[in-house]
Amino acid sequence: MLQSNFHKGPLGSLDDGISHDHGEEGGIGELVNLALGFVRRRYRLILLATALASSASVIYLRVTPPTYTGQAQILFTNSRAQFVQQQSMLAEPPIDVAQIESRIQILKSKAIALSVINQLGLGGDPDFNGSRPSPSELLHRIQAWLIAFPSEPELESDDPTPDRTIAAFQDRLSVNRIGYSNVIEINFNSSSPTRAAEIANAVAKAYIADQMNEKLEANQSATSWLQTRLRELNQQAEAAERAVDRFKAQNNIFSSGGVTIGEQRVTELNARLVAARAQTSDAAARLHQLESILSANSADSLSIGTLDASGSDALNNPIITSLRQKYLDFARKESEFAWRYGKDHQAVISLRVQMQQIRTSILDEVTRLAETSKSDFEVAKQRQQAIEKQLADAISMSRTTNSAELTMQELQGKAKGYRSLYESFLQRYMGSIQQESFPIPEARLISPASPPQGKSKPKSSLILALGLFGGAALGMAIGLLRDAMDRVFRTTSQIEAELRLRCLSLVPRVSATRPRGRLVSKLLHQPRPAPQQRTMSAGSTIYQAVVGMPLSRFVESIYSIKLAIDLSPTKTSNKVVGITSSLPNEGKSTIAATLAHLIGLGGKKVIIVDCDLRNPSLSTNVAPNASAGIVEVAAGLRSLEDTVWTDPKTNVVLLPTTRAAQSIHSSDILSSEQTRKLFDKLRATFDYIIVDLPPLSPIVDVRATTPLIDCFVLVVEWGQTKIDVVQHALHTAPDVYDSTIGVVLNKTNIKSMRKYDNYLSDYYSNKHYDRYRLADHL
Predict the structure, then answer these.
(1) Angle formed at CA 571 by CA 7 and CA 718, multiple of 5 degrees
(2) What is the pLDDT of residues 435-452, one digit of tens each?
(3) In a designed cystine with 647, which of 105, 355, 568, 652 is the match (CB 3.0 to 4.6 A)?
């Protein structure tokens, strides 16, 4: 049975040498096999959960009344004309997400619900007065029934429409935004399709009417407030203007064109002063020019070129211009005559005299111009000084009135502010008056509700599908939970992976309480031996199954244990084989007895030693009348030949343990020198020594026998023994673990193995055993 070649390692870890039956499989194939194995194990649970959930779905559909949904759509938009928005007193912001959500909450509000209920008279409708509760109300009632504490009694109210009716209405109403648009969808559920459509339309119209009334009331309130505010502003503006007039009269402040008389006087004098200063500057420049000419020339040395370079004032004088022309003519003639007649000619000299006279005349004219310019300069300077004095007097007078003018300006600004504010409010007031005569709602019904053709809930196909698939999913979830919590040994791969030990054999479950066949009849009718013969009892059919029915699956599994013992490479000799388990009642005594009988049939000398000193179940079953056993033999009180019991068919010898020999010091007895000498004697006499040991837990006797035992065989009960328990038991007994050659999976349900080991499903099929005429039962 499944011999794997690998080395031991720490418990709970895998080694590279471990070879599983399907270790090379993977991917989709492995997942499919795991799924098939899970379905084989849990298909009854899955079918049961699916059937229950489907039945619950059918019952729900039968008992739940149909619900119809009326659906209406309204559009929110800023539908006012542009000129109306400009004249509106109330701001008209763009529609955003927050406004949409606010309007949805208004549609769901108690005010809208109460308006529709009163308008349509829904107080007596069974859908709202509690005689026909909605599914959510049913859930609330069930929750109230499940709560142990009594609910508080409802207080009586004078409201003709109770809160229960409004709550039922709101529970059936749903309002949602369609995508990212400004369209709102109104859904109302009712048991009547006509009523559902009627109420959905009524909700939309009630909202539109409510918004129009609200806007009208807001405009009226704003208009009334604006009228009062206009009167106040008009009175304040008139009072401020009268204060300005009184202040002007008190302070003799007069103005023309918005400018005071003092300011006009200062401005005029300032302009005259600028002109006077320009005239004085011009006169000074002319005087300076003429004086420069006079200082640079004399009557004998006047140069006409100096006049040309002096500026245009002297050249523009007609007298000087005429004299200058004559001078130039005489100079030309003098040059010609001097060249023609010589420099000393009388004509030349006469011309020179005339030229000198002309220079003297020009110089006299320049002197006269200088005197005239000097006089003009003095006049201009006096005029400038007079204007400067007048300007200084005007500025001085203006300074005395600055404080009054500032106060007057402040009063004038205040009066202008009041008047401007009054005009602005007057414009808004006229716009609000026009707006009241132009009522436009912010929402309109774009898709009125019509009676639905079919029910909206419960959706039969969806409920049935949920019941079917939900039940299957629930069954699978429970199955997966059970598999996760099923921490027991069921497959050989689990033993190899978790314990790092080989699985020597799968021993099928057999029952000693239901014997059948010729073997049972033969065993039950054979005569019971006398007590003094010390012959092993044949009352247990399991112990002697190898004798009466050797061609069985059970016996074949015992052969696998013997073969594993003989071929184990751990030691050169495996004469002393210890059979133990982690917990009691796992079938170790049965395995020990049947293994010994099987070896005895082969002609080998075999002895079974019952070392379970505290609970000798094997001795109780096959040697119930034993008066002495291993304890007495080891102590030297009895001989081995006078103590052992024998099976006449297989020649198997039993060294029993008596109940009278039970002791709390059993581990000391098993580890004593007398017991070791006894086992040395048995090694010399017998070919195989099968030792029925106590379990590893909860006592420690097995650890005391490690010097006596060549190899151990661990028996694990299929589907019962916890993996953690076996691991802990082996961890606490490392010497036993090192000497263990493998594990026997006992009491195996072969039919169920196909559900847990899908890869080896063909291995567990009976057809292969039938081919060799091996029976699957005793």
Answers:
(1) 60
(2) 555 556 778 888 888 888
(3) 652
d(CA 497, CA 492): 9
Q: Give the pLDDT of residue 305.
A: 56
Q: How far apart are CA 612 and CA 666, in angstroms?
A: 9
Q: How many CB atoms lie within 10 A of CB 649?
A: 16
| Beta bridge pairs of residue 67 | 457
Residues whose CB falls within 8 Å of the CB of residue 353, separated by 6 or more in sequence, listed in order? none
Three-class SS of 638-705: CCCCCCCEECCCCCCEEECCCHHHCCCCHHHHHCCHHHHHHHHHHHHHCCEEEEECCCCCCCCHHHHC
Which helix (H) or strand (E) covers residue 578, if one does? strand 576-581
Q: Six-digit token pair at 449? A: 């509700």
* % pLDDT > 90, the chain: 13
> Per-residue pLDDT for 5 more than 80?
no
- Which residue carries 């729900």 as its tokens? 60
State residue 716's pLDDT score: 94
Does residue 11 contact residue 731 with C-beta atoms inside 8 Å? Answer: yes
At 590-643, the pLDDT tens digits run 899 989 999 998 889 999 999 988 888 888 888 888 888 888 898 888 998 989
**CA–CA distance from 382 to each of 186, 265, 290, 339 (Å)?**
97, 20, 21, 57
Question: Token match 């207080």: residue?
Answer: 155
Which residues have CB under 8 Å from 776's CB, separation 6+? Answer: 508, 552, 553, 750, 766, 769
* pLDDT above 70 (res 100): yes
Q: Could you count the other beta carbons within 10 Å of the beta carbon of residue 254?
A: 11
> Which residues, including other chains, have CB under 8 Å from residue 217's CB and lie 6 or more apart?
none
What whole-number distance in Å separates Cα of residue 353 and Cα of residue 165? 141
Whether the full predicted model's pTM is greater than 0.85, yes or no, is no
Name, in order, each residue with C-beta under 8 angstroms of 636's C-beta and a sequence gap of 6 or more.
674
Virtual torsion, Cα 25, 31, 35, 40, nearest 10 deg: 0
Contact indicator for 503, 2 with CB cutoff of 8 Å: yes
The tokens describing 607, both together, are 């002895």
Cβ atoms of 712 and 694 closer than 8 Å: no
